[in-house]
């Protein structure tokens, strides 16, 4: 019983915890104008580690205060400017805080492992195939067309490494070709002569048709 009430002072900015008011601005919530959202462990952990702002579990704030899953920076700056950089934190709150931080680290570690084992741009995707749309966007080819292209290029002719297989090398080259073609087409449009400057009289007087007005489709 006594241990649960043990507390200590720490150099953190502490926000209030209320079910009726925003923990950032202390304003009441209204269903139509000011809707609330609970500050999840990711937001609370990020605020504590990066900005020394302590937010108790179960705290609510306005939805408009959250952007891309985090508390907006302008609000963080105002908290640091207007709040005292010292607060009292109880033992149970610290335990919950450490549990949240541990869970966040596990989540981050899990995401990193997923990216390492299954990178987003993986053309050697026999087990987890990439969508056909991804192939078309990156290479201009469908999955079957890309497979056919790879079958006609001997692996021995390509320089590969531990992190770049023959298929990855072909995909990289195909992407560069597609980008080059797109750039060439764009340049042909932007560099085209403005034939609208040619007057109708000049066009009518021309016998060889050199001043014919062309339209780029």
Polypeptide structure, described:
The chain is mainly α and 217 residues long. The protein folds into two domains: 115 residues, no CATH class; 60 residues, no CATH class. Helices cover 44% and strands 10% of the residues. The strands form four sheets. A two-stranded antiparallel ribbon has the order 1-8. It has a two-stranded parallel sheet with strand order 2-4. Strands 3-5 form a two-stranded antiparallel ribbon. A hairpin with a 2-residue loop joins strand 6 and strand 7. The longest helix has 27 residues. The chain is elongated. The C terminus is likely disordered.
Outline the fold blueprint.
Layout: E1 7-10, E2 13-14, E3 36-38, H1 41-51, E4 53-54, E5 60-62, E6 66-67, E7 70-71, H2 73-82, E8 87-90, H3 91-117, H4 132-139, H5 143-151, H6 166-190, H7 200-205
Total tally of structural domains: 2
Give the amount of beta strand, in percent.
Answer: 5-15%
Strand order of the largest sheet: 1-8
- How many strand elements? 8
- What structural category arises from helix and sheet content? mainly alpha
Helix content: 40-55%
Give me the strand/helix succession.
EEEHEEEEHEHHHHH
- Could you tell me the mean pLDDT? 77
Question: What's the number of helices?
Answer: 7
Kindly provide the radius of gyration, computed on alpha-carbon positions and rounded to a whole number of angstroms.
Answer: 30 Å
**Major sheet characteristics:** 2 strands, antiparallel
Poorly predicted parts: 194-217
CA(first)-CA(last) distance: 81 Å
Shape: elongated
């Amino acid at each position: 019983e006594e241990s649960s009430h043990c507390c200590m002072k720490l150099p953190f900015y502490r926000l209030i915890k209320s079910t009726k008011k925003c923990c950032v601005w202390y304003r009441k919530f209204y269903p139509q104008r000011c809707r609330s959202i609970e500050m999840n462990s990711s937001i609370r952990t990020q605020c504590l580690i990066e900005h020394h702002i302590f937010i108790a579990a179960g705290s609510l704030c306005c939805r408009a205060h959250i952007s891309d899953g985090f508390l907006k920076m302008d609000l963080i700056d105002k908290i640091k400017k207007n709040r005292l950089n010292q607060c009292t934190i109880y033992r149970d709150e610290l335990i919950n805080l450490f549990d949240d931080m541990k869970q966040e680290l596990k989540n981050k570690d899990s995401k990193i492992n997923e990216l390492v084992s299954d990178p987003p741009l993986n053309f050697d995707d026999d087990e987890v195939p990439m969508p056909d749309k991804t192939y078309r966007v990156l290479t201009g080819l469908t999955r079957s067309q890309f497979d056919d292209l790879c079958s006609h290029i001997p692996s021995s002719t390509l320089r590969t490494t531990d992190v770049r297989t023959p298929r990855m090398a072909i995909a990289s080259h195909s992407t560069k070709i597609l980008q080059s073609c797109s750039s060439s087409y764009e340049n042909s449009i932007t560099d085209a002569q403005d034939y609208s400057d040619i007057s109708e009289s000049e066009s009518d007087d021309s016998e060889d048709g050199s001043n014919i007005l062309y339209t780029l489709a």
